[in-house]
Amino acid sequence: xxxxxxxxxxxxxxxxxxxxxxxxxxxxxxxxxxxxxxxxxxxxxxxxxxxxxxxxxxxxxxxxxxxxxxxxxxxxxxxxxxxxxxxxxxxxxxxxxxxxxxxxxxxxxxxxxxxxxxxxxxxxxxxxxxxxxxxxxxxxxxxxxxxxxxxxxxxxx
Length: 157
Fold this sequence. Notes:
- The protein has eight helices and no strands.
- The chain is mainly alpha-helical.
- Helix 3 packs parallel to helix 5, helix 5 crosses helix 8 and helix 7 packs antiparallel against helix 8.
């Protein structure tokens, strides 16, 4: 699904018109199991041109899809490993760039990933955190890195 089309569908989920909203929600339920859909939501959240409403709706849908489909279950769709790897690689950047209203949803995805991730799967994010904290990064980057580190360390409390 193209980013522009996805933004329109997400905007439809916030419509005051109940018919438009229901149609948009139905469409999202149909495509949530398509490979790369969760990655496309993540890309939309990173796009500067996307409207704040679309970013918020994408963050909420992204959080819900990851919460529902991250863990492998026999009877249910699961996000594939390629998509999970792409999400892990781009999640810190998304945490940095996300607006305050959508940052909480992205942090919850990080927490969900950390709770179910294996230590070797967290190595990449630890390198990203170290790199961010070792450089003269902006305050937003430091905050996102510290939030990600907090979610990782909570697993080992």
